[in-house]
Amino acid sequence: MAQRGTNGSKVFVTVLYMAAVCSSVPIGDLLDRASQRSDKLHSLSTTLTQELDSHFPPIGRAIMPRPSMCHTSSLQTPNDKEQALQVSESDLLSLARSLLKSWADPLVILSVSANTLPHPAQSTISNKLQELQEHTKNLGDGLDVLSGKMGPAAQTVSFLPYSGGNDIGQDRLSKLANFHFLLSCFRRDSHKIDSFLKVLRCRAAKMQPEMC
Amino acid sequence: MKNMVVVGVLLLSLMPHANGAGFSPPGKPTLTSCRSPEKETFTCWWEPGSDGGLPTTYRLFYLKENIETVYECPDYLTAGENSCFFSKNNTSIWVNYNITVVATNELGSTMSDPVDIDVMYIVMPHPPEKVLVSVLEDKDWPFLRVSWEPPQKADTRSGWITLVYEVRIKLEEKDDWEVHLAGQQRVFNIFSLLSGGTYIVQVRCKPDHGFWSEWSSSTYVKVPNYFHRENSVWILITTFTAFIFLIVSWMIHMNRHSLKHCILPPVPGPKIKGFDKQLLKSGKSGDVFNALVASDFPPTTPPRCEDLLVEYLEVYIPEERELMREESKHLQDGFLKSEGFASDSDSGLGSCNSHTLLMDNSGEAKETDRRTDQERSRPGAEALTYAREDVSPDMSSGRVKTWPSVFSPLTPYSSGPTDQPGAKQHCLSDSVYPPGSTSPCSAQDLGLNYWEFCFSSMQPHLTQTRSDVNVSDIGPERAAARQQSPAPRPTEYVEVQRVSEEDMVLLQPVGPGPGPPARPGEDYSRVKGVRGHNVLLLQTEEEADGRACEELETKGAAHKPTACSHGGLPAPGRAAPAASGYVDTAMFVLPSC
């Protein structure tokens, strides 16, 4: 694992040099932009969760599914720093892309149910959800560009289907509970993406140590 | 197993007290906070409840996501009292922890409320370290450069944790902090410092999605004194400004007059001829305006006929004034019939040479007479007309009766000749022969548009004779006709338009003006022509078209007037201009004396 990591970092540095020779935008800048977007994405999801929490019945937490029930939990991601720093850049990017792509459909379902959400801050939630979708799409496009520059290993994407169906609940309580649950899953995954990209950014900034 | 532990604790809590001496199971503890300084470890603190008087132990248990095993806190000591420290090996990120604290004493146990935490949400780093503040010079204006290091534990190099910083500064003696966000950089410059002041600087940091750290310890810095240099510059500027101000004020003082003219231009004085400013200043406005009144206006001495384009009519009716006074008493408010004036639209002044005006005037006079008669018939009708109208009714009627002829009564006219010259001075020529002079005047002397008469002592009787002749000559029918003649016409003058070579005098009626009061309402004949030396062909009024004419002899010669047999005029062309005019037959003397 460690060997792979060092080899991977060497390859990465080589790729970076090659990228630097070319006249296109350097990967470091691309990663910087990507990490800024992911930062914004996570902030949005945090705000959304707090909005929902403002008028959330306590009983709803009891019936909320456990976080391990997130549809992306099947994806193996590093759980601490040591693990994370040992993952190669391509894998990190692949993980980020996989997570992001897995949320495309559920976000649509969320935004649809947000229109009829039995919550006092329903309109704010709906608007923020729209913003969330836009940012997700933008970040996805950016990561696709990055993956194209980082070799074939970065191109692999794990497929994580959402099995929750189109309906998030029948009654008001289950609707709210499921909505809250989905958002918390997204919040976590957006944090993962953000962390991975920032690790990648600092790795690519060997020539610019002041960035990290 | 967890369930068994829980049940056991519950049973213990429900067991009765060992003794009722005030001891009780422990109170419920509370998890106050859990924090991770570097996203690699974390610590949880709790608040114990009442211990119930007995020694109480506290234990922390936690559950990790997807793992059924209940774990106990691995380290109760590192983080101090009532804390639990989770080391790196025990810390997983993106994993949900369910933590509970249990307080146990002899009498029982009490569990706290469980708390769910995820390490990614509880990051609060240590404050930045090695805060250095230095004073640097920038063109004699010093500034502070603050530099620091991230907290030691935080791994920013690998990008695992990203920190943003904040700097705050204040004067030592003040209370307000000046806060600056520094972003991800580790150096910061502060400008605009008070010279000689002592400042306190502090720095803190925050992860991208976490809590702010505590402020670093205060760093004191003293700014050197640079005020004296500042002062000298101000002194220089002040002196320069004062100098310029002095120069400008001196210049203004030197040019104050022209400046005054420029800013406050003098009011132009009145440009009225004859206006005396001094008089105005003295305050007698009456005098000022009287001075404006030209003494020679209207001109009392008649100007030359050539000078004036307007004809000047003189009015001499002494009785007129009395009548005028009477009339004025009857004047209604603002009602001034000025039809009389209308005929004299030029206030009695007409062109000496203007034929049309004279013709108009004569025509108007006729109408005016009729009108004025009508007015008089109307009670209370006021007519501020000139004397002839006013005077004529009283006298003319008498005279008409007395003299049922066209010709106006001559008796009053006898006094007329003396006035005549004056009245005749319508052109006001200097060459008017004075009345009563025996100087010969020939037709050639006339060079003026003037009918001049040589008055001799014969005149009065001449007129009488003429009038007699008139009366005798004019037949009764004529007299009747004349009686029926329209309202007495005012005296009209004739002026000679031109003197022909054949000793013919072309007469032109002068504009109807107020004639001498002696002869109001006289009728006149129109001169048809002149024949020979001393014959004037006259036209009666009814025969203005020249059906008949009369011959009148002049000069008092006992020439019998022969009726005009011919209807033609000896000089039709010449008579034409005079056709509309009238001649005062009484005045008729050819200038052959």
Automatic annotation (TrEMBL), chain A:
<dbReference type="GO" id="GO:0008284">
    <property type="term" value="P:positive regulation of cell population proliferation"/>
</dbReference>
<keyword id="KW-0732">Signal</keyword>
<dbReference type="InterPro" id="IPR018116">
    <property type="entry name" value="Somatotropin_CS"/>
</dbReference>
<comment type="similarity">
    <text>Belongs to the somatotropin/prolactin family.</text>
</comment>
<dbReference type="InterPro" id="IPR009079">
    <property type="entry name" value="4_helix_cytokine-like_core"/>
</dbReference>
<keyword id="KW-1015">Disulfide bond</keyword>
<keyword id="KW-0964">Secreted</keyword>
<feature type="signal peptide">
    <location>
        <begin position="1"/>
        <end position="24"/>
    </location>
</feature>
<dbReference type="GO" id="GO:0046427">
    <property type="term" value="P:positive regulation of receptor signaling pathway via JAK-STAT"/>
</dbReference>
<dbReference type="GO" id="GO:0005615">
    <property type="term" value="C:extracellular space"/>
</dbReference>
<dbReference type="GO" id="GO:0005179">
    <property type="term" value="F:hormone activity"/>
</dbReference>
<dbReference type="Pfam" id="PF00103">
    <property type="entry name" value="Hormone_1"/>
</dbReference>
<dbReference type="GO" id="GO:0031667">
    <property type="term" value="P:response to nutrient levels"/>
</dbReference>
<protein>
    <submittedName>
        <fullName>Prolactin</fullName>
    </submittedName>
</protein>
<keyword id="KW-0372">Hormone</keyword>
<dbReference type="InterPro" id="IPR001400">
    <property type="entry name" value="Somatotropin/Prolactin"/>
</dbReference>
Automatic annotation (TrEMBL), chain B:
<protein>
    <recommendedName>
        <fullName>Prolactin receptor</fullName>
    </recommendedName>
</protein>
<keyword id="KW-0472">Membrane</keyword>
<keyword id="KW-1133">Transmembrane helix</keyword>
<feature type="domain" description="Fibronectin type-III">
    <location>
        <begin position="127"/>
        <end position="226"/>
    </location>
</feature>
<dbReference type="InterPro" id="IPR013783">
    <property type="entry name" value="Ig-like_fold"/>
</dbReference>
<feature type="compositionally biased region" description="Basic and acidic residues">
    <location>
        <begin position="363"/>
        <end position="379"/>
    </location>
</feature>
<keyword id="KW-0732">Signal</keyword>
<dbReference type="GO" id="GO:0004896">
    <property type="term" value="F:cytokine receptor activity"/>
</dbReference>
<keyword id="KW-0479">Metal-binding</keyword>
<keyword id="KW-0812">Transmembrane</keyword>
<feature type="domain" description="Fibronectin type-III">
    <location>
        <begin position="25"/>
        <end position="125"/>
    </location>
</feature>
<dbReference type="GO" id="GO:0009897">
    <property type="term" value="C:external side of plasma membrane"/>
</dbReference>
<dbReference type="GO" id="GO:0019955">
    <property type="term" value="F:cytokine binding"/>
</dbReference>
<comment type="similarity">
    <text>Belongs to the type I cytokine receptor family. Type 1 subfamily.</text>
</comment>
<keyword id="KW-0677">Repeat</keyword>
<dbReference type="InterPro" id="IPR003961">
    <property type="entry name" value="FN3_dom"/>
</dbReference>
<dbReference type="GO" id="GO:0046872">
    <property type="term" value="F:metal ion binding"/>
</dbReference>
<dbReference type="InterPro" id="IPR015152">
    <property type="entry name" value="Growth/epo_recpt_lig-bind"/>
</dbReference>
<dbReference type="Pfam" id="PF09067">
    <property type="entry name" value="EpoR_lig-bind"/>
</dbReference>
<feature type="signal peptide">
    <location>
        <begin position="1"/>
        <end position="20"/>
    </location>
</feature>
<dbReference type="InterPro" id="IPR036116">
    <property type="entry name" value="FN3_sf"/>
</dbReference>
<comment type="function">
    <text>This is a receptor for the anterior pituitary hormone prolactin.</text>
</comment>
